[in-house]
Design goal:
about 140 residues, 7 helices, about 50% helix, about 0% strand
């Protein structure tokens, strides 16, 4: 004999009502699900994207504002790319000389080793070398 006021039994028999059952009892709908997060992508950064990132960051835009212009990238990935690969791309005169010496020593194909030797990210070293040393490497 069922007692009034008892909760509806769930299909699992644990006495807990499912959200669908609760919705039917109360007439309330559950809140909207949040928008899905952007999925991870291993898409390499194009030179045009890096240039846009540099221009926007140098202009003082916030990370949120910048990330909105990169629809396939999260705010975190944009920020990480800046600090890991681009932020240290400013080379002083002595850094430039050290980079050129490391390139001659390790050849232009070992950017990770060259970056470690100079104390800068490998991608920043490669980009700087291509822009400033051109045919000398």
């Amino acid at each position: 004999m069922p007692m009034s006021g008892m909760s509806t039994m769930s299909p699992t028999g644990l006495g807990e009502a499912t959200s669908l059952e609760q919705e039917e009892e109360t007439g309330e709908t559950s809140p909207q699900m949040p928008a899905p997060k952007k999925s991870r992508t291993n898409t390499p950064w194009s030179p045009a994207e890096e240039q846009r990132l540099k221009v926007m960051r140098d202009a003082g835009n916030s990370w949120g504002e910048i990330a909105k212009t990169f629809p396939n990238r999260t705010e975190g990935s944009v920020k990480k790319h800046w600090y890991k690969d681009m932020h240290y791309a400013d080379f002083a005169e002595n850094d430039s000389a050290a980079l050129l010496a490391a390139i001659k020593e390790y050849e232009a194909s070992k950017w990770k080793v060259i970056g470690q030797k100079v104390g800068k990210p490998a991608k920043a070293c490669e980009q700087y070398a291509k822009e400033h040393f051109g045919g000398r490497i």
